[in-house]
């Protein structure tokens, strides 16, 4: 298995994990001292417990939420790597007939661990968002 393929699989596991939600899968993509950063809010969470709590709180705002990632541009330097991937997120707010679409880019720093590649830092840089009403029976 190539390092590029393994890194893309880490990104894919994160995306599926946050979309299900499967917190063990999503949090398992981070190194033990990994960081999750949201540039627009300045939020930085460090370590699996803090990241899980932050993600669960965010996900709790939604009835459903899915994330779609594009294949990443990956650069490897020994036991570290950088990756950038375009992301689209869609979700319906819980208890409201309102949905949101967010677009942006993840800028990732990864490290090779005994368990394989993991995020040392995953930073979301939003490009924009769109909120709209939901037509009953039609989803968006």
Q: Helix and strand layout, with pairings?
A:
Blueprint: H1 3-19, H2 23-27, E1 30-38, E2 43-46, H3 48-59, E3 62-69, E4 73-77, E5 80-93, E6 98-113, E7 116-133
Parallel strand pairs: 1-7
Antiparallel strand pairs: 1-2, 3-5, 4-5, 5-6, 6-7
Summarize the structure.
By secondary structure, the protein is of the alpha+beta class.
Describe this structure as you would to a colleague.
- By secondary structure, this protein is an alpha+beta fold.
- It is 24% helix and 53% strand.
- It is built from 3 helices and 7 strands; from the N terminus they run H-H-E-E-H-E-E-E-E-E.
- The protein has helices at 3-19, 23-27, 48-59; strands at residues 30-38, 43-46, 62-69, 73-77, 80-93, 98-113, 116-133.
- Strands 1, 2, 3, 4, 5, 6 and 7 form a 7-stranded mixed beta sheet that branches.
- A hairpin with a 2-residue loop joins strand 6 and strand 7 (116-133).
- The relative contact order is 0.20.
Task: State the end-to-end CA separation.
Answer: 39 Å
User: Main beta sheet: strand number and arrangement?
Assistant: 7 strands, mixed
Radius of gyration: 15 Å
Secondary structure category: alpha+beta
Share of helical residues: 10-25%
Number of strands: 7
| Low-pLDDT residue spans | none
Order of helices and strands: HHEEHEEEEE
Number of helices: 3
Q: What features would you highlight for this structure?
A:
single chain, alpha+beta, 7 strands, 140 residues, seven-stranded mixed beta sheet, 3 helices
């Amino acid at each position: 298995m190539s390092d590029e393929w393994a890194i893309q699989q880490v990104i894919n596991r994160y995306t599926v994990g946050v979309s299900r939600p499967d917190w063990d899968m999503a949090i398992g993509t981070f190194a033990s001292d990994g960081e999750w950063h949201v540039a627009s809010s300045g939020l930085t969470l460090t370590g699996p417990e803090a990241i899980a709590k932050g993600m669960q709180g965010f996900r709790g705002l939604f009835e459903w939420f899915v994330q779609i990632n594009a294949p990443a541009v990956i650069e490897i330097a020994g036991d570290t790597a950088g990756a950038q991937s375009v992301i689209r997120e869609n979700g319906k707010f819980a208890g409201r007939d309102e949905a949101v679409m967010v677009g942006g880019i993840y800028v990732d720093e990864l490290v090779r661990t005994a368990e394989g590649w993991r995020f040392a830092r995953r930073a979301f840089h939003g490009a924009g968002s769109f909120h709209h009403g939901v037509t009953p029976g039609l989803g968006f």
